[in-house]
Amino acid sequence: MDKFSASFLALTVIVCAFCSTRVEATRLSPELAKAAESAMPGSKIRLDGALQTKHGGLFLLLMPRDAGKKSKDKVEVEALLPSENQQDIILYTNGWAHVRVAPKGEASTLAVPHTLSDKHLKQLLSLKLPSDLIVPQGFVLPRSMKSVIVDVPTISLLDDGIVHRPDFGEKHKSVPRAQYKGFGSVFLTSITTGSITMLDGKTLNKVAEFPTEGTPSGMELVNGQLYIVDQAKHRILILDPLLRKFSGQIDLAPKTAPKSLAALPNGKWMYVSESGASDIAVIELASGKVLIRTKVHPGPGRIALTPDGTYLIVLNVTSGEVTIISTYNQKVVTTIKVGDMPSGLAISSDGKIAYVNNRVSNTVTALDIAKRTVAGTIKVGQSPSGIALSPDDTKLYVACGRDNTITVYDTKSQAQLQQMHLPPDIEFPGSLCLLQNGAKLLVASHQGDALGIIDTATMEVERRTSLGHSHHEVVWVPAP
Q1: Domain of residue 105, residue span
Q2: Predicted confidence (pLDDT) per residue in 331-341, tens digit
Q3: Is 66 among the domain residues?
Q4: Mean pLDDT for the stretch of residues 259-275
Q5: Whole-prediction pTM value?
Q6: How many distinct structural domains can be found in the chain?
Q7: What is the pLDDT at residue 15?
Q8: How far apart are CA 43 and CA 54, in angstroms?
Q9: Is the peptide bond preceding residue 113 cis, with omega within 30 degrees of 0?
Q10: Is 62 exposed, middle or buried (0-12, 13-18, 19+ CB in 10 A)?
Q11: Among 144, 160, 199, 416, whose CB has the most other CB atoms within 10 angstroms?
């Protein structure tokens, strides 16, 4: 075979492969198009068969599973549901249908009335969305309508209770970084001893110890209750800070190994990273039930929400990536490569930048959340293990475990401002927590038995609180 023949054959194979996989545009028959226009005068038919009304409304097409079967020559409107005064669904005599898209805040879904008869609902669920559907922004479907997305697997499914909630899709109120209110309390978890330690927020002396017989890790304060994940026992413990006792727990599926928590500003839903299952679970706090799980790349660890609750930032420890999830439809927006073993996370108060420390790469990655790109990389010391932002977002504090240091960086120039070495009893610094509007920095010790209290004005150790064991996560709980 000569060179020309070989090239022609290769081109033919490529073209044929393209032709066999390309999606045909959805074409309405002239009769169906005429019937649709009669139901919605002045509307336009999109390439995917959807109806765009003159008032800006949108009706998506639902078609029979066997769309190639011969249809009736004459097509008429069979029914307008729920009534002629309010059209959510247009049924045609050939079995096709148009269903209105109902915007719900930042999300949207199909407007299927609760009053729809079993007959009409069964008829709708026997149809499917076209394979070339132009999916509306933030579009989701209740799980009960899963059958209509045969050819559009990218559409997210949520439990019916979520989609039909009055507040579904609403933009969450932005929550500023916690400001100092009284002295409150400080809580620390110890994976080594399986205990939770409580300190007085004013004296920073130990006031209580709560054994768990598990491996407590990430914590989150929601509605006055402190939620703590227990990785070994696959549960979330609930601790009442005022009564100083456990008030309940939420059981998760076996082998999920939860690691971190983040609650929406409205205090209704909470996200949990399930490292063992590579899932992000959404829990309804009122019922304690998991509503949905979003699959992410291996090893999800620390998670945090942007202040307005729009995006959930997930550190994928195993794959060295960051996953961004939309909280409107629980769908993965993007996955960004950062560095090896991302372990610490801090988000600016305006929700624009996320800082991620990469323990093995010895770097901190700055991510532009809106643009979904890496905005910069800071070379830091050995094994960066903790990270915190000053209340005004101008200073970044980075703890480096192997160097036993705390380094301060200017967030604008990314230049190093200060560095201090920690004493031996605060060995391998981990989680960082700022108190008194940034005046004090608490430093957890992964291998020592003392909690460090640093004056951020001088960057010197002001004092140490002996806990008698190593500790990993530290959070401040403001006074009620």
Answers
A1: 30-163
A2: 899 999 999 99
A3: yes
A4: 94
A5: 0.77
A6: 1
A7: 33
A8: 5
A9: no
A10: buried
A11: 199
